[in-house]
Design goal:
The chain has six helices and no strands. With about 150 residues, the chain is mainly alpha-helical. It has one domain: Four Helix Bundle (Hemerythrin (Met), subunit A), CATH 1.20.120. The chain starts with a helix and ends with a helix. Bound molecules: heme C. Heme C binds next to helix 2, helix 5 and helix 6.
């Protein structure tokens, strides 16, 4: 009898606990945007290492990383919904009062990344590095204004 009860409790528990583990959709939205940004940082970091000479410059690899970055950038804004403003994150509160400026910066970043892909495929190394510098500055400018420093 006792054994059956334990089995029953275990079964019910396995049904109930996943339910209590369901995450808040707004928190998921924040995790999503942070995940995409992390992915962008990963790819941009690798390009940066090549630009700084910490890694040897490989044109094909650079073009591949630039391509991936340009695919990821348009996904970020899906995660910056006004409803997420109360969720704890590294976004400063001024994002929500300047949302159109914030969104515009991502549009500009997206164009910059597409340009980087184009140049990485056809341009000289010096041009690639120059365009990378323009892109990296856009990241930094936005972070200075809208991201908490941690
Ligand atoms: C228009 C503004 C803006 C631009 C442009 C921007 N970022 Fe960010 N970034 C943010 C904000 C705001 C956060 C904090 C997000 C949060 O915590 O929800 C962030 C967070 C990040 C993070 C941390 C992600 C995490 O939580 O692990 C990385 C990495 C990052 N950005 C990389 C980049 C790179 C690289 C670029 C340029 C290619 C870039 N960002 C361009 C606003 C921007």
């Amino acid at each position: 009898m006792k054994k059956r009860l334990i089995i029953l409790v275990a079964l019910v528990g396995s049904v109930i606990f996943p339910l209590t583990g369901i995450s808040d959709p707004l928190e998921d939205t924040v995790t999503y945007r942070q995940g995409i940004l992390f992915g962008i940082g990963w790819n941009v970091g690798a390009m940066g290492a090549m630009v700084k000479g910490e890694m040897s410059f490989d044109k094909d690899k650079f073009a591949f990383l630039a391509q991936r970055t340009s695919i990821l950038i348009p996904m970020v804004l899906e995660g910056f919904k006004l409803e997420t403003k109360e969720i704890e994150s590294n976004a400063k509160t001024n994002v929500w009062s300047n949302l159109s400026d914030f969104e515009e910066r991502f549009t500009t970043l997206s164009k910059g990344a597409e340009e980087l892909v184009r140049i990485a495929e056809v341009g000289a190394e010096s041009e690639v590095k120059k365009q990378f510098g323009i892109l990296a500055k856009q990241c930094k400018d936005c972070h200075d204004k809208y991201k908490k420093s941690n």
